[in-house]
Design goal:
The complex is a heterodimer of chains A (about 240) and B (about 300). By secondary structure, chain A is mainly alpha-helical. Chain A has 11 helices and no strands. Chain A has one domain. Chain B is elongated and about 75 Å long. In chain B, about 40% of the residues are buried. The chains are: A mainly alpha (about 240), B alpha/beta (about 300). At the A-B interface, helix 1, helix 5 and helix 11 of A face helix 2, strand 6, helix 3 and helix 5 of B.
Chain lengths: ~240, ~300
């Protein structure tokens, strides 16, 4: 596999995403809500003079844990464009006629959706942490972030959640011929992470090192399996002929 | 350069291409004509390794389209212009070509040189930074040609290159193809445009799921119409007709004051016919060779086939 070719495809997709308002909107709105609205809710409850410190910490942790699940909802708009978009805009045929392998094409499409999603997620998390620190300093007398939990979520969980979301969506995109359906199915595919969120939130799974290690190994397994699956179901001929 | 042998393609129970065979030599321009749904696009897609064949073989410059290890080599040496241009509307003309050149692994300097060369040659260099979405159909088609040529392919496949273009844009594209022909590129064109075929193609293939005929234009016309000479006289007289009874040719018909001769060997028969008419007192106004258009020939051929 020639990574350079995958990178060329990804760069081209970045250029296109920048020019598509509907993609930009869907890319920024959700993370901005997370990064600004959540801290504003904290700001609202902090006004309550009866609020105890541990209650405030629980509230912040609840929002922090949403970062396990919510970044998974960023890639669908990008990833669903990957194959369906090329097909509906009639650019797929010359692309497939060029000397690129399925691996190079799919990997390029994954990079194209992964990098903006992770960038936006980190931007949102940065905004979230910054505003929380500003809003809660007077009450807590220390900066709540950075902390170990958020570090694990940001550096270990979010990349995998996004990668899985991207792969599921590229897979859906190479099987579904309609952009809207692909995008909706892609968003639906993230519901297992809702379960993960509640498992952490209700302490069904504790955020300890062993559990995290198991979770990360499981996510790695899923990422690799999904790439192999995506590659095996990617059928150039079917995409070109059945979607006409 | 292109050798096709008993190539077929079935989609479920429908046969799109049925056992076709033909050869295209290096530097030859091959026009593939036929009604809609005749299997022309499917044939191009098989030859460009976009879809697999159901049976049969085809070799592109010696590489087998059915061999997975050969498909990347084939794709490297061909350029494709699909029936819809397939350009990225959000990118500029330059970036569209740049993207394509990078996919073919071209060196930076060669890529830049080729982009400049083709955009200038097609008269769109001054619009290189404008996004393609703002281009007219003709400009998009020109850009699609440039994209297909950016990596200096040996073989060019064009699917309806002048469909939906205005006459002026069609002419530009056609002239460009003539230039390419002079550069000894092998060109395979799917088209409904007979003026294009007549002007550019060395050889034609008539397709209707099966390949009905492959020949040069001249052979195709002669096989359908025969070799005919028309002699327009001032007046057709009995003495002229009687004198012609002694001359050897395949057939003759009279239409008003025109004599239409069906010939075997025009170089020998024409002088004899003319001499006989003149000696019999006939007054010849003009002599022409019957040269029907390729379109008329094709339509007559289809009528006869049906």
């Amino acid at each position: 596999m020639n990574i350079r070719k995958s990178w060329v495809i990804a760069i081209k997709d970045f250029e296109i995403f920048k020019k598509k308002k509907e993609i930009l909107m869907s890319l920024f709105i959700f993370p901005l809500i997370m990064g600004i609205v959540f801290p504003l809710i904290i700001l609202g409850i902090i006004e309550d003079p009866n609020l105890k410190v541990h209650e405030l910490i629980t509230a912040i942790n609840t929002f922090s844990l949403l970062y396990i699940m919510l970044p998974g909802f960023i890639p669908p708009s990008l990833a669903s464009y990957s194959i369906v978009g090329e097909k509906t805009e009639k650019t797929l045929e010359p692309l497939l006629a060029s000397p690129i392998t399925d691996d190079e094409l799919l990997f390029g499409k994954i990079i194209a959706s992964f990098l903006p999603s992770i960038f936006i997620s980190y931007l949102s998390a940065l905004l979230f942490m910054l505003l929380i620190n500003i809003f809660t300093y007077d009450k807590l007398h220390y900066f709540f972030f950075p902390n170990w939990n958020m570090g694990v979520i940001l550096l270990l969980i979010i990349p995998f959640v996004i990668l899985l979301s991207v792969e599921v969506n590229v897979l859906i995109s190479s099987k579904i011929s309609d952009l809207r359906t692909a995008s909706q199915l892609g968003a639906l595919s993230m519901t297992p992470f809702l379960g993960l969120y509640f498992a952490f939130q209700t302490y069904l799974i504790g955020l300890n090192l062993f559990n995290l290690l198991v979770l990360i190994l499981f996510l790695v397994f899923l990422v690799v399996t999904l790439f192999i699956l995506t590659k095996s179901v990617f059928n150039r001929e079917k995409i070109l002929t059945k979607w006409d | 350069m292109i050798e096709v042998e008993n190539l077929s393609k079935k989609f479920d129970n429908m046969t799109a291409v049925d056992n076709i065979s033909f050869n295209i030599e290096e530097g030859e321009v091959f026009g593939f004509v036929g009604p809609n749904g005749a299997g022309k696009t499917t044939t191009i897609r098989m030859l460009t390794c976009l879809i697999s064949s159901t049976s049969g073989t085809a070799k592109i410059a010696g590489y087998d389209i059915n061999k997975k290890s050969d498909t990347l080599k084939i794709r490297k040496m061909i350029g494709l212009i699909p029936d819809n241009v397939g350009l990225y509307n959000e990118l500029s003309a330059y970036k569209n070509l740049d993207f394509c050149g990078k996919l073919y692994g071209m060196e930076n300097s060669k890529r830049e040189e080729n982009i400049k060369y083709f955009l200038k040659m097609l008269g769109i260099w001054d619009k290189k930074d404008i996004i393609v979405g703002k281009f007219s159909k003709g400009m998009k088609q020109k850009l699609a040609i440039a994209r297909a040529l950016i990596h200096d392919p040996e073989i060019l496949f064009l699917d309806e290159p002048t469909a939906n273009l205005d006459p002026s844009s069609s002419k530009t594209v056609r002239n460009f193809l003539i230039d390419l022909k002079q550069e000894n590129k092998t060109i395979f064109i799917n088209t409904h445009n007979f003026a294009e075929v007549q002007q550019i193609c060395d050889k034609i293939g008539i397709m209707n799921t099966k390949l009905l005929r492959v020949s040069t234009q001249k052979d195709f016309k002669e096989s359908i119409w025969g070799i005919k000479t028309i002699v327009q006289l001032d007046k057709v007289t009995d003495s002229v007709l009687n004198a012609l009874n002694n001359v050897s040719f395949k057939n003759m018909s009279v239409s008003g004051d025109k004599l239409i001769f069906d010939l075997n060997d025009p170089q020998k028969e024409n002088p004899a016919i003319i001499n006989t008419i003149v000696n019999a007192g006939g007054r010849i106004l003009y002599v022409t060779k019957l040269d029907p258009s390729l379109e008329d020939t094709y339509l007559k051929f289809l009528r006869e086939e049906n």
